Amino acid sequence: AAVNNTSTGHATQMPREMGISGSSAGATPQKRVDHFVKWLAEGEVDVQAVADSSQEIISLYDSWEQYSEKTCKEQISRCIKAKGLDK
């Protein structure tokens, strides 16, 4: 998988050992971690941006799990009635 490096504009190839499935033929977990660390270093990946983006995605999923359309409609309806906007 190629990742575009925004600082240089060059694509960096992720090692085959770090394929999308996460499996590799005969690679030990440590070897896979080493390849991943090397790939991050060579690609100048902004790890903080990746962590921030991941946290935002997790927060979004959490919000989706807690969302209830019925509850939301009820709360909006109560707010409208309380302000007298339903007339």
Describe the structure in your own words.
With 87 residues, the chain is mainly alpha-helical. The chain has 3 helices and 2 strands. The chain has helices spanning 29-43, 47-66, 69-82, and strands at residues 2-4, 11-13. A two-stranded antiparallel sheet has the order 1-2. Strand 1 (2-4) and strand 2 (11-13) form a beta hairpin. The longest helix has 20 residues, at 47-66. It is elongated and about 70 Å long. The model has no long low-confidence stretch (mean pLDDT 79).
Distance linking N and C termini: 58 Å
Helix percent reads: 55-70%
Shape, please?
A: elongated
* Major sheet details: 2 strands, antiparallel
Q: Major sheet: order of its strands?
A: 1-2
Number of contiguous helices: 3
| Strand residues, percent | 5-15%
β-strand number: 2
Average of per-residue pLDDT values: 79
Class based on secondary structure composition and strand pairing:
mainly alpha
Q: What is the N-to-C succession of helices and strands?
A: EEHHH
Poorly predicted residue ranges? none
As a whole number of angstroms, the C-alpha radius of gyration is 23 Å
Keywords:
single chain, 87 residues, mainly alpha, two-stranded antiparallel sheet, 2 strands
